[in-house]
Specification:
By secondary structure, the chain is α+β, with helices and mostly antiparallel strands. The chain contains four helices and six strands. Strands 2-1-6-5-4-3 form a six-stranded mixed β-sheet.
Length: 126
Amino acid sequence: MNSVEALVDGFFAAVTAGDREALERIYSPDAAIWHNYDDVEQSREESLRLLAYLHRKVGPLRYEGVRRVVLEDGVIQQHVVVLGGVGAGLRMPTMIRIFCAGDHVTRIEEYVDPGPLNQRLSELRS
C-alpha cells in the first residue's frame, strides 16, 4: 500500500468513526470539498461540521462495494454509503475523487444523490 492509499484509508476510517481530530489532521488547512448536487465548494470547516452532523444523525456509516483507482495525487473511488441511525436502510451510490499532497487531503469532488437522505431527514422534522 502506498502513502496516498494509506492517507485515503485513514480519511474513510475517520469519517466512519466520526473522528473530527483525525479529519482535522488529514484535511489540509485550505482543503476544498465540492459536491455535484449543489455545485458549491465547502471549506475545510464546513466539511468538518457536515461530517459531524452526518455522523450524529446517520452514523455509523459503512462503505460497501469499494472500487478504487490509486493515482499519483489521490484516488478515484466508487462505493455505496450505507447509512445507520435515522437513515437506516438508505444506500447512496457515490463516486468520489480525492486529491492528496503530502500527508493531506487537499480537495474532494463528490458525486452523489442526497435526495433520499434529505427526504428522510425532512420527514423526521415534520
